[in-house]
């Protein structure tokens, strides 16, 4: 049961002209509690019934069947207002959470469906910067959400481990690098010589030509070139893995761009056979003027392949390997054109599944200090941010709760959770400005605030030290104060919110909702004594605490954030 759904079913009896879906769409939550829990505006019915909305509202009220879930139905102006009956409502919501526990909100919706999620995908020999964090945490959250809804998920880290930049890096290394420096300094040293390459190439364009030659050698299997490339990759992956360890996540596949090296020829051949390839100044392109886009480059004039060539090949490989129902790409907004172009190519190739390819763009992250860029070298490495978050959290713990058990672990879970939450709290398309004061504010709308609320619930349950009673032994009629009902209303919506988050591919719907739950819970905690209450009241309030603790823990988990029991 879901109250909104229930009301739509009742309304359908009175308004046979509308479908239940249409009714669901029209139903709204009134701005003021005095106007009920749901309201149905009758303005759209004026056309059908040719009467004034207030009159329609009045007539309809008499036709709506009674339901034990509703206490009152009234007509006010052009609206029908529905007031729920708190006891059956609260009984229903809490019993569901107590019964389903950590599974509350899960579903079998996705059973038998495969979802490929392409996320994170940092570039070898380039920094794993705070921009990649967005792809990583949005992708991971979408993975967790879909899995919870019963989908079979395949998480792919499409590493940027192929392309002309490796030609540049080889030239740079041969001119200005040493084995020792790279071994000891890792990616930082690779970035240094890469930046130097760009500075020097501005004065001496021959360097670019040399770089192109080295990349062509790589594509042709030249041993020296491949050995260097492989070494750069080992160095980079070591650092990436440290970040993934901190975030505690892993991938089902690390098939990056280089994986498609030996798979592109047949695809280029297929494009040619289908008459899609055109020559243009020695390069091979696919005309997309009908689609109002610039052409998609497939090979350069020296025969080397491009980012798009590898993406087209990868999509076909993934369709054949995983038989996906959806393949989701989580990258920055700037890549919109790239994805639109090659999705159009897949369509032109005659693959009907082109519309199962979905690009999920997101806005940019900037530090308060300014934009991030690799070529200029003023990058902020994600690993440094994560470690700083842990250190700063440790300082806060030392200050507020120095005797906390397991301090190191908690500092890690809270510090990292704070960074992740900051990234997932707004619509993904919005830009994010990273500010330490905001991220780690335990009283603001932050990850630590929710984690703290969760830990508070855990501590109440621990102090009570009793088993939560079964639903049939609980007195739900004692849970009728405003604060408790408000918490139950939010708990009731949790499953719907998860499904919406999956539909819209928008984890922020969950972060917003659990923020609402945490705030409502803290009001309840403030208004309603728990452990000092009379026995029956204490039992039912503890059940509510347990329900909130469970749902917050699930919600945090769906965002990829840990829920420590003490803070
Ligand atoms: N490596 C790319 C970047 O850092 C992202 C790759 C996204 N995935 C893809 N299949 N193109 O911008």
Overview of this protein structure:
This protein is of the alpha/beta class and 567 residues long. The protein has three domains: 3-84, Arginyl tRNA synthetase N-terminal domain (Gyrase A, domain 2, 2-Layer Sandwich); 119-367, Rossmann fold (3-Layer(aba) Sandwich), CATH 3.40.50; 432-558, Isoleucyl-tRNA Synthetase, Domain 1 (Orthogonal Bundle). It is built from 21 helices and twelve strands. The protein has helices spanning 3-14, 20-26, 45-49, 53-63, 86-100, 130-148, 165-176, 179-185, 187-203, 206-219, 223-247, 264-273, 307-322, 336-348, 382-400, 407-424, 436-439, 447-464, 482-504, 508-527, 535-559, and strands spanning 38-41, 70-76, 79-84, 114-118, 152-156, 277-280, 283-286, 296-299, 326-332, 357-362, 365-367, 432-434. The strands form four sheets. A four-stranded parallel sheet has the order 5-4-9-10, with helices on both faces. Strand 4, helix 6 (130-148) and strand 5 form a beta-alpha-beta unit. Helix 10 (206-219) crosses helix 11 (223-247), helix 15 crosses helix 16 (407-424) and helix 20 packs antiparallel against helix 21 (535-559). The two termini are 36 Å apart. The model has no long low-confidence stretch (mean pLDDT 94). The site of arginine has 8 residues, from strand 9.
CATH architectural group of the largest domain: 3-Layer(aba) Sandwich
Small molecules bound in the structure, each named once = arginine
Q: Which spans have pLDDT < 50 for at least 5 consecutive residues?
A: none
Question: Could you give the count of β-strands?
Answer: 12
């Amino acid at each position: 049961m879901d109250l909104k759904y229930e009301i739509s079913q009742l309304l359908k009896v009175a308004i046979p002209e509308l479908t239940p879906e249409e009714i669901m769409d029209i139903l709204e939550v009134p701005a003021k509690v005095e106007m009920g829990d749901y309201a149905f505006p009758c303005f759209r019915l004026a056309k059908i019934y040719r009467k004034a909305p207030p009159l329609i509202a009045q007539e309809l009220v008499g036709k709506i069947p009674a339901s034990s879930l509703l206490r009152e139905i009234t007509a006010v102006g052009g609206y029908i207002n529905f007031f729920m009956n708190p006891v059956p409502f609260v009984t229903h919501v809490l019993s569901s959470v107590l019964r389903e526990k950590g599974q509350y909100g899960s579903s079998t919706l996705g059973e038998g469906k495969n979802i490929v999620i392409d996320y994170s995908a940092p570039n070898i020999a380039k920094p794993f910067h705070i921009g990649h964090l967005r792809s990583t945490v949005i992708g991971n959250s979408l993975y967790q959400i879909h899995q919870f809804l019963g989908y079979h998920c395949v998480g792919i880290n499409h590493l940027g481990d192929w392309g002309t930049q490796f030609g540049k890096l080889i030239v740079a290394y041969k001119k200005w690098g040493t084995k020792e420096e790279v071994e000891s300094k890792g990616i930082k040293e690779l970035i240094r010589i890469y930046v130097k390459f760009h500075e020097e190439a501005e004065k001496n364009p021959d360097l670019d030509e040399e770089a192109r030659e080295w990349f062509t050698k790589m594509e042709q299997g030249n041993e020296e070139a491949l050995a260097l490339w492989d070494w750069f990759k080992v160095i980079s992956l070591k650092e990436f893995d440290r970040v993934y360890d901190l975030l505690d996540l892993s991938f089902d596949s690390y098939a990056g761009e280089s994986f498609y090296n030996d798979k592109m020829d047949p695809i280029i051949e297929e494009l040619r056979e289908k008459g899609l390839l055109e020559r243009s100044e020695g390069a091979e392109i696919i005309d997309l003027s009908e689609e109002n886009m610039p052409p998609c480059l497939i090979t350069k004039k020296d025969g080397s392949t491009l980012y798009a060539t590898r993406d087209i090949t990868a999509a076909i490989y993934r369709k054949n390997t995983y038989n996906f129902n959806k393949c989701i790409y989580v990258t920055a907004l700037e890549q919109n054109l790239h994805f639109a172009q090659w999705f159009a190519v897949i369509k032109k190739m005659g693959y009907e599944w082109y519309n199962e390819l979905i690009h999920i763009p997101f806005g940019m992250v900037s530090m308060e200090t300014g934009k991030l860029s690799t070529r200029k070298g003023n990058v902020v490495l994600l690993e440094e941010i994560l470690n700083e978050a842990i250190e700063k959290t440790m300082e806060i713990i030392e200050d507020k709760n120095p005797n906390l058990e397991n301090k190191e672990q908690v500092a890690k879970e809270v510090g990292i959770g704070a960074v992740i939450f900051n990234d997932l709290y707004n619509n993904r398309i919005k830009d994010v400005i990273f500010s330490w004061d905001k991220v780690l504010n335990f009283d603001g709308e932050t990850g630590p605030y929710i984690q703290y609320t969760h830990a508070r619930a855990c501590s109440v349950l621990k102090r009570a030290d009793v088993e939560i009673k079964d639903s049939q032994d609980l007195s739900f009629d004692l849970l009728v104060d405003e604060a408790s009902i408000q918490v139950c209303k939010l708990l009731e919506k949790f499953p719907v919110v998860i499904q919406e988050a999956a539909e819209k591919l928008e984890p922020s719907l969950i972060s917003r909702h659990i923020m609402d739950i945490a705030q409502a819970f803290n009001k309840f905690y403030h208004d309603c004594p728990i452990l000092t209450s009379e026995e029956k009241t204490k039992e039912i309030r503890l059940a509510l605490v347990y329900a909130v603790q469970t749902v917050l823990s699930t919600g945090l988990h769906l965002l990829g954030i840990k829920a420590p029991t003490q803070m």
